[in-house]
Here is the input.
Amino acid sequence: MSEAKGSAIGGIAYVVAAAVMWSLVPVSIKKVSAAMDAYTITWVRFAGVSLLLLIYAHLSGDLKTLRRRDIGLIVAAGAGIGLNYVLYTCGIRLTTASAGNVVVNFEAIWLVVLGRLWLKERLGGVKLVGAIITFAGVFAAIWNGEALAALIKSDYFIGNMLIVACSMPWAVYGIGQKILVERGLATSAALACIFGVAALFTLPVMLVGYDVKLPLDLSAWIWLFVLVVMATLAAYVFMAKGFEKLDASTAGVITCILPILTIFAARIFLDEVVSYTVILGAGLVVAGMIIIGNAEAKSHKARQCNSS
Here is the structure.
């Protein structure tokens, strides 16, 4: 049990680390957006990460793990994450940030659903209890009067629906990444190709909305580096490592900690207020993750015993 539990804890740690990196995204975009439009920022993230990982994968020999059978899945995952970013960028402009934080959690729900349908994963029993507690913690932290009003207000309906729609393509990326990991494709090679496809997918949108004020000042360059290297490259590498150790559905539930981390990041970098409900929600999320981690360890142990 200790080996399985260690694997589960390690997987959760990787996903939480990815969420910590992702929590820097809103702050970074806010800092860079004065000099660069949102669609160009998105394209730079995809193209920059793809180039860096392609260089690494070539030098390390990881590209040799790529097989022809992987191409279709890579295209689906790349198109999924590209569509996710485009729809989210469109949607967040038509709703409030707090409402966006609520509906973006549909990504975790879709990952659970697709994990069940595509990978035959189960989220029952104790693991389901942990998922419910985790979701409750997220909603305790971000479900306020503004978010509720924005969800049901007709002015924000299109924006909310776009963000809901963007959640399923991201789940397609997640399932694709999970399958590629199980096939033995190196993380660097998989992500280099997936982000390359995403860069090609979002290129037309970037060209239409291109609005960059050159030259960029030092602050913009620093935050662009944070966005590309830390909040994108490191985040997705950590997430891929999490998929290696966890079921896709479990990894999806753990990502629900992201809105809470984003709130704390905004407090640190943007001096926004953290309420008591956020602290309560964070506590529930941690409790839920502990329950899920123990259930995941038992599930891995059972699979190991059955295979032997």
Notes: The mean pLDDT is 78. The chain has one domain: 2-307.
